[in-house]
Structure formats: C-alpha cells, structure tokens
Design brief:
Order of helices and strands of chain A: HHHHHHHHHHHHHHH
Structural class of chain A: mainly alpha
GO cellular component, one term (chain B): plasma membrane
Strand content of chain A: under 5%
GO molecular function (chain B): ABC-type quaternary ammonium compound transporting activity; ATP binding; ATP hydrolysis activity
Strand content of chain B: 15-25%
Number of helices of chain B: 17
Order of helices and strands of chain B: EHHEEHEEHEHHHHEHEHEEHHHHEHEEHH
Radius of gyration of chain A: 28 Å
Organism (chain B): Rhodosalinus halophilus
Oligomer: heterodimer
Number of domains of chain A: 2
Shape of chain B: globular
Number of strands of chain A: 0
Enzyme class (chain B): translocase
Number of strands of chain B: 13
CATH class of the largest domain in chain B: Alpha Beta
Largest sheet of chain A: none
CATH architecture of the largest domain in chain A: Orthogonal Bundle
Largest sheet of chain B: 6 strands, mixed
CATH superfamily of the largest domain in chain A: MetI-like
Distance between the termini of chain B: 25 Å
CATH topology of the largest domain in chain B: Rossmann fold
CATH class of the largest domain in chain A: Mainly Alpha
Distance between the termini of chain A: 76 Å
Catalytic activity (chain B): a quaternary ammonium(out) + ATP + H2O = a quaternary ammonium(in) + ADP + phosphate + H(+)
CATH architecture of the largest domain in chain B: 3-Layer(aba) Sandwich
Bound molecules: adenosine-5'-triphosphate, magnesium ion
Structural class of chain B: alpha/beta
Strand order of the largest sheet of chain B: 6-7-8-3-9-10
Radius of gyration of chain B: 23 Å
Number of helices of chain A: 15
Shape of chain A: globular
Helix content of chain B: 40-55%
C-alpha cells in the first residue's frame, strides 16, 4: 500500500494499474519497509509526504512509468530516428568533413616558409599595422620554435573553416531575422538555447549521429556553438541602421535589394564584423573542447596534460591557445577599427 | 505671378486625407467623422489623429509651404505625397493619377523620376562620398558612373560645393551637408521636390543663405516644391501658397499676404502676432484697385514692393498717396492711411480689415 493509492482508486484506474498494488516491491524504500514488517497500513505522516513524482506514483500503480523510463525512452527514441536522421544529415554535412580534411592537409603539407609569410600577409592586409604584424610574427615564430607549429596550425585551420561557414550561414540568417519579426521571434529562443547549453551537451547527440573519426563531428559542434554571435549581431546591426537613411533610400525609390546591399549591409558592417570577431573567439574555445572527440590541434595537448597529468605539456599548450586567441582577436579588431574609420557617421 | 493661382495647373491634389495611428485606425475613422478631435481620440480610444480631412491643391511651379507647430502633422502629411506613409482614408492625386492605386513598380517609378525629397536631418548615406550621395537618384535608376559623374558635379557646383566630390558627409558641416541633400534632390531631375523642414537644423545665417539659394534655383527651374516649416518668417519668405496645420487639420490656406490680412482664427492671430508686417506685406495686397488717390499723388510704386519700402519713400508723411504701376500700366492707388491700417497688429484691427476686405 503506497501513499497515492487513493488517487488511482478515486480516478477509478485500479483496473488499468493491474491487480497488485504492492506485492512486488520495486523500490528500496519498499524493501526497507517490508523488512521492518510494516505491510502498508501505516498512517501517512504529513511531514514525510512524498512529492507525487513519477516514482512515487509508480509505487501506487505499477502501470505508471518510472522516471528512469523517461531517459530510457528518450534514448530509444533517438536511436530509432538516428538511422533516418543520419541518412539525411550525412550527405548534407559531408562537405564539412571534406573542407576540414582539406584545410588540415593543406596547412600541414605546405612548407612553413610559405604558410607563415602568408599568415603575416593576411595580417597586414586586414590591419595595416606594423606593430600588430611584428606581434603576430613573434607569436607564430615562438610557437614554431618550441615545436608547437603543427598543433597551432591545425587549430587555426579548423577555426578558419568553421568561422567561414559560420559567416556563410550566419549573415543570411541574421539578414532574414532583421527583415521579419516572426523569424526573429522564432530564431531567438534557438540562439539562446545554443548559447546557454554547455558545450559538452552538444557533443552527446552528435556522437550518436556521426562516427567519432569523422571531422564533421567536431566541425558541427564548433559551428553550432560559434554561429550565434554573428547571427545576432547581423540582425542587430541591420535593425540599428539609421531610420532616416532608410527613409531616404525609400524616398529615392530603391528596391529592397538595392537597400540591402547598398545601404543596410554596408552600414551594419561594423556590427557584423564584431560578430565575426566573437564567432572566431568562440570557435577557438570550442576547438579545445572538441579535442575530446578527436579534433586535432593544441587541445589534444591540453587533453594529454589532463589525462596523463603532464603538467608542463598542458600548460604550454594552454599558453599557445592564449597566444592564438590574442592574435585572432587583435587582427579582427584591427580590421573592425579600419571599417569603423570609414563609417564614421 | 503670384495672383493667378486659378490659372495654374494643379500638380498634386490632396483630397479628404485622413491618417490615424494606432492598432485599429479604420474603426476610429467613424469617431473622427463624427467630429472627435485629436486629444479626445487619444483620451478615449488611445489612437493618434495624425491628419484629419486634409484638402490641398499644390500648383505646378509653386512653392507650397505647410506650416504648423510641432506635432501638427506636417511630416506625416508630406510623407503621404510619396507614400512613405499610407493614409487611413482619402486620395492623393499627382498629375491626375491617384497614387494610392499604384502598385510597387509604379510607386518606385514615381519616387525615382517624379519626386525627390530633402530631409531635416540630411539623411545622407554616411559610407558614400559626396559625389555618390548626390548621384543617388541616378544610380538607383541604374545609370553608369560615367553618366552620373558629370551630372553630380554640375549640381554640386550649382549649390556651391564644387570640389568636395571626394569627401564623406561626416567631413562636412551641417550647412554643407544640406547643400548635398539639396543637390541630391535636384540631380534626380524630378519635377516635384518635397522638403521636410529642410533648413530647420541650420543656424540662422546659413538658413537665410539656403533660402536665397532655393529661391534663386526656383527662378531658374520652376519646380513644384512642397516645403515644410515651423518658422513663419521662412514660410512667408518662400511661400506662394501657405497651408497652416493644427492638430492634424488645415486651419487656413491661402496666399501668405491674405493670411496676414485676414487670419481665420485666434490660432493664426497668435502665429502672426510677432511678425514685422511692414517687411512682409506688399503693395498689391493693400492697394485699392479702383478710385482716385485721396491725397496728392507723390510718386509711383510697384505692386511687389513691401510696405517698409513704401514708408521710406513717403518719408513718414501719412497724408500722401502713391500710384501703383507695373510695366507702365496703372494697377491702383495706395494711400498712406491704408498702409497704416494694414500695419495695425491683427488682434486689434480684425474688424476694420475684415470689413474693408469684403467691401
Ligand atoms: N508612427 C507613428 N505612430 C504614432 N503616432 C505618430 C506616428 N508618427 C507620427 N505620429 C503622431 O502624429 C502627430 C503628427 O506628427 P508629425 O511628425 O507629422 O508632426 P510634425 O508636425 O512633423 O512635428 P515636428 O515639427 O515636431 O516634426 C504627432 O502627434 C505624432 O505623435
Ligand atoms: Mg516633422
């Protein structure tokens, strides 16, 4: 006899619950009660009234599911749709694997004396700052000198690919959100969820869907995590464009297209670039975590430091990540500053 | 030029135009038709009465000035002319076509080719050079750079900004930015130009310059200009036809001189009470077309001269009279007595002026 027997009897559901109310003890507390020789008829003490949770209701009625079955059900449900889902997702995401493989192959098989000057050239092109160029050169050469060149380049390659894809999809999604309030209202909860879910949680369903050896597994995890800021800031940037300027564009008969490419995107560019900066920083954070699911790069060394308690390896790799973070941040901020300079209102 | 309003073609006709802001504008129309005013509608139904039964004819080649205090609906009204705002009810006819029937393509054609606009806050594109801003209408129409470059340079020259083509708007002062705004509107070559408080953000000297520039350009181009202003001096200086708005309805519309001499109600009396009447009133609106001079005729004057000029010609003699002549033709006579009477502030002189005008 359990606390909530009365509930099922008043609802007339005893039939559904089955014959036995308490003959087969299912929980520990039942066993304990039995061993104490209490066979159920005790008065319910109000202080010990259990919350009518799934388990408590199951005590009273075995046909009622236990909460363990919820997680089990979710798992089974996911496994059931997993095959169909991967049939769809696999081909769609395959290009991501190819892109990541190609980038990793490319950056590791191009000689360092081409890669390093190329990176410095990019730095110069976007920042036009000698100081920054010297700083970036010092960092990369330093990392190479302590034999972290390959790891650092792998990390960079992954970030470039993922950030590029984030921009490729994030900017159009942000534009869509800025033009339709319905779409904005529908998208914002998803973005909130992506941003608040702990990064490890993404990995769980992804591991079921894709094999751990595939690069797209960590690619997707990074993209889902890092795409949020570029979407948000594109949306915000376009919505914040001066209403008066938009009105002038309308008054001179611009089409929506002319307005978007001629006015809104150029004027939202500082915000979009701020989003790109954040996206890159978040890719870097995630690429370290993604080493748990075979993402190569500096994260692997950090992981080794943790697993094998190799303090020095972990710390040096951590320092390398910090350097990369600073480089990426400074370079994107410098290009942002240059855009801002030409956009002064 | 100023008296023949009836003989001019009507470029824009505004007919029974209503605009109500709020969630259920159509439902509110009934209350407004029943005579509910702006503040009452706000109190009982939480809707803003933006415009109420506006009827205005804008004549071709005229500067039509719409004036009113802040919140009287001036900006709302001018934005109906190119449908930046759609009305709750009513019609806007441009060259005889109701633009509310236009589809998107026709509307775009209207905005690209037939109307241009100058804004109070300039609204230049900050990321484009002065040249590109000036050529906005042309680039929107899809003209090539080679075509528009010359046109832009020509108009920038015309507004006194030659040589600034490569600069960005933020590098210019407010007055210069509005010159770009004006050049941008002129470069579109549209026959109608809408100007929403175009000079209000400028300081007084630059403002006068810009007004003179506009009048000078108008001599030459004869555009149909709809000009919004909250400044009576500016309105009187520019207007061929003056429309005075209050709480979303038209209180009075007429030639500016008539409004000064025959204000329709106390609101307008208040409006014009600070004005220097001698400087604004002209001979033609005060003279008598018939009859002989009462005193001896001491000289000849033109119909467009201001009373201030007449007073200085009379040397302060209140008994003399002038013959009003244009191109050697006699138009009427002006007694200094009439001049004095016209200068009496409106509130006090209402009776005298009214009876005289209807006689
Ligand atoms: N989008 C809107 N929603 C609600 N009310 C509005 C809207 N636009 C204008 N109004 C109201 O309509 C009235 C007229 O506004 P409008 O901007 O036309 O005034 P204005 O005469 O141009 O004033 P100002 O001299 O300050 O520019 C005001 O009471 C304003 O509050
Ligand atoms: Mg206004």
């Amino acid at each position: 006899m359990a606390t909530y027997d009365w509930l099922f009897s008043t609802l007339g559901l005893e039939q559904w619950c089955g014959a036995s109310g308490g003959s087969a003890p299912t929980s520990l507390s039942d066993l304990a009660a039995q061993s104490r020789g209490e066979t159920g008829e005790q008065a319910v003490d109000i202080w010990e009234l259990p919350f009518p949770s799934m388990d408590a209701l199951n005590d009273a009625c075995p046909a009622f599911p236990q909460s363990r079955e919820l997680t089990l059900g979710l798992e089974e449900g996911f496994l059931d749709i997993k095959d169909t889902l991967s049939v769809v997702l696999d081909p769609i995401t395959q290009p991501l694997s190819w892109a990541l493989d190609a980038a990793l192959y490319g950056i590791l098989n191009t000689p360092w004396w081409i890669v390093i000057p190329l990176l410095l050239a990019i730095t110069w092109a976007v920042s036009r700052s000698w100081g920054l160029l010297a700083f970036v050169a010092a960092c990369i050469l330093g990392l190479a000198f302590i034999d972290h060149y390959d790891y650092a380049m792998q990390t960079l390659a992954i970030i470039f690919v993922c950030a590029f894809i984030c921009v490729l999809f994030g900017v159009p999604i942000g534009i869509g959100m800025s033009r339709s309030d319905t779409m904005q209202n529908a998208t914002i909860p998803i973005l909130d969820m992506l941003q608040t879910l702990p990064p490890f949680v993404y990995l769980i369903p992804l591991i079921f869907l894709f094999s751990v050896t595939e690069p797209k597994l960590y690619g997707i995890a990074i993209i889902l995590y890092a795409i949020v800021p570029v979407i948000r800031l594109t949306n915000l940037g376009i919505r914040m464009v001066d209403k008066n300027v938009i009105e002038a564009a309308d008054a001179f008969g611009m089409t929506d297209r002319q307005k978007l490419f001629g006015v809104q995107i150029p004027l939202a560019l500082p915000n979009i670039m701020a989003g790109v900066n954040q996206t890159i920083m978040m890719s870097l954070a995630m690429v370290v975590i993604a080493s748990l699911v075979s993402a190569p790069g500096l994260g692997v060394l950090v992981l080794r430091g943790i697993r094998n308690l190799e303090l020095g390896v972990g710390l040096v790799a951590g320092l390398g990540i910090v350097l990369l973070a600073v480089i990426l941040d400074r370079v994107t901020k410098a290009s942002l500053a240059r855009i801002n300079a030409t956009h002064k209102a | 030029m100023r008296n023949d309003r009836d003989s001019k073609t009507t470029k824009i006709e505004i007919r029974h135009l209503y605009k109500i802001f709020g969630p259920h504008p159509e439902a509110m129309l009934e209350h407004v038709h029943a005579g509910m005013g702006k503040s009452e509608l706000m109190e009982t139904h939480q809707h803003v009465l933006g415009l109420s039964d506006i009827n205005v004819d804008v004549k071709e080649g005229d500067i039509t000035v719409m004036m009113g205090l802040s919140g009287s609906g001036k900006s709302t009204l001018i934005r109906h002319l190119n449908r930046l705002i759609d009305p709750t009810a009513g019609e806007v006819r441009v060259d005889g076509e109701n633009i509310l029937d236009y589809d998107e393509r026709q509307l775009r054609h209207l905005r690209r080719n037939r109307m241009s606009m100058v804004f109070q806050n300039f609204a230049l594109l900050p990321h484009r050079t002065v040249r590109e801003n000036t050529a906005l209408a042309l680039t929107v129409r899809g003209e090539s750079r080679a075509d528009y470059e010359q046109e832009a340079a020509r108009w920038l020259d015309r507004v006194g900004l030659g040589g600034s083509e490569e600069q960005y708007p933020h590098q210019l002062s407010g007055g210069m930015q509005q010159r770009v705004g004006l050049a941008r509107a002129l470069a579109s070559n549209a026959p109608i130009m809408l100007m929403d408080e175009a000079f209000s953000a400028l300081d007084p000297l630059i403002r006068t310059d810009m007004q003179d520039l506009l009048l000078e350009l108008q001599e030459e181009l004869s555009k149909t200009v709809v000009f919004i202003s909250h400044d009576l001096d500016e309105a009187l200086k520019l207007a061929d036809h003056l429309v005075i708005l209050k709480d979303g309805y038209v209180v009075q519309q007429d030639e500016p001189q008539r409004i000064l001499l025959e204000p329709a109600d106390d609101y307008i009396v208040d409006f014009i009470s600070d004005i220097n009447r001698a400087r604004v009133l002209r001979v033609r609106s005060v003279m008598r077309a018939e009859g002989e001079a009462r005193g001896g005729v001491t000289g000849e004057i033109g119909p467009e001269e201001t009373l201030e000029e007449v007073i200085s010609k009379s040397g302060g003699d209140t008994s003399c009279s002038f013959l009003v002549q244009q191109d050697g033709r006699k138009l009427g006579v002006l007694d200094m007595n009439d001049v004095m009477r016209a200068l009496v502030p409106t509130g006090a002189s209402e009776h005298g002026l009214r009876s005289r005008a209807s006689a």
